Amino acid sequence: MATKSATWAYRDSFPSFARTYFRRYSDCIISSIGLGTYLGDPTDAVDEQYHAAIIRALDHGINVVDTAINYRHQRSERVVGQAIRDADADRESVFVATKGGFVPFDTERSDDPRAYIEAEYVDSGIIEPDRLARGIHSIDPDFIDDQLDRSLANLGLDVLDLYYVHNPETQLQTTSREEVYDELEATFARLEERAMAGDIRHYGLATWECFRVSPDHDSYLSLSEIIERARAASDTAGTNATHFRAIQLPFNVHMADAFTVDAHESSEGMKSALEFAHDSGLNVFTSASIGQGELAREIPEAIAAKLSGDTSAQRAINFARSAPGVTTSLVGTSTTAHVDENVAAGTFEPMGARAFDATFE
Question: Nearest to residue 164, comparing CAs of 131, 125, 204, 196?
Answer without folding.
Answer: 204
